[in-house]
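Appendix B. Raw example, untouched.
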Amino acid sequence: MIDKSIIHWFQKDLRLTDNPALYKATTLGRVLPIYILDDSPSVRDKIGDASRVWLHHSLNSLNDSLDQSLAVFKGDPIDILSSLIDRHAITDVCWNIQYEPWCQKRDLKIIKWLEKKNIKIHLFNSSLLWQPDSIKKKDGTPYKVFTPFYKRGCMNSSIPEKPLPTVNLTKNLIKCETHQGIESLNLIPAPRWDKMMMNNWSVGEVRAKRLLSTFLKENICQYKTGRDLPAQLYTSRLSPYIHFGELSIRQIWHAAQQLQADSNTDCFLSQLGWREFSYNLLLHNPDLPCKNLKSKFDLFPWSNNQDHLKAWQRGQTGIPMVDAGMRELWQTGYMHNRLRMIVGSFLVKNLRIDWRKGERWFWDCLVDADLANNSAGWQWIAGCGTDASPYFRIFNPVTQGKKFDPEGQYVRRFVPELKKIPLKYLFSPWEAPKSILDHLGIRLGENYPKPIVDLKQSRLEALEAFSSLKQNVI
């Protein structure tokens, strides 16, 4: 058996612990570990720029763990697999399933091709706690609301399998001398805007495990309320590690289950449940990233103000809490979840700009840009999803700032132009007396923008636009 040559195809499972497909490969024979970047025009959801940077570092970390034996390619998977199968007399191919629609279509094509070549195929779920098509209502239809999906569907389903042990491949690896190498993928941008972003992160499986351990020991005890405070470190910040599979979702679930059950742990686990729900939505609605789940929003009178869109993207709206969130995104490739809701609400409601433009900007700028989570999140914010915050729920970024950044630490960090302004005016500097602004050297419209919209007026216009949908419904 050990003489057999097996391909393990790494995708978004860049780890050696709890990797079902890799574990299976090691039981079958000698393993050729490969990664393929498919950048073909047919792939709609190509990896965004920030995620490409993370991927570069993650592949290097994985390659170190594999004794520099990771074979890396760019191109059509069938062409690459065909060459490797012939060159190395491959008998089996193992990989972990990805649930994005384009991956599903690609895999079906590859499976049929491998079957014709009499190559054995071994597929596993390693990115979700439950198979997305296994959680359904009693009548066999998919859930459309999160709470019953999680409480009735997930929590009454089978317990997620326990994580598999770390594989030891050092004496069982096939080295490919003809691969292209990580640098050939051109994942690092020119000019190097990524350096500031990556100063905030340490990438790879080892770092992911440490981060999980620290979170569970020190921060989860404050999670339920603390997760809404962007200046504090009460969130796990595990999302990019989960997205690239440096840490498995089962590792996180079972590690959290070891803690004493309380509202903080339950709240954290429910966030993992929301991720499961997002993939369930994506499976049953493959157009989730681009099509309103509530069709009445197809008639919504979106604004096409490009100046407003650019101001939002650059964190130059003149609304400090919004600008802080957008600058955190640009500087770190990440945004606190509370801010994702605030900046999203401002875009689709106060600016009335189509949520899909926000979804695409996040896709390009987030290191944790996950197709299901990102799409479901934006549809939730816009009010057009199946289980969404209603459109008329419009976040006021001033009151949100006062409530969730009560000392102003978050805004002062990312909007240093306002660093010295009294807390009373930090979230609405346009309300500050001119004498205070002059004393501090703050010139609205010059060294910090004036608000690009009036919050009260834009809220009324958003509600009026929403009301027009009811009039158009026949």
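End of appendix B.
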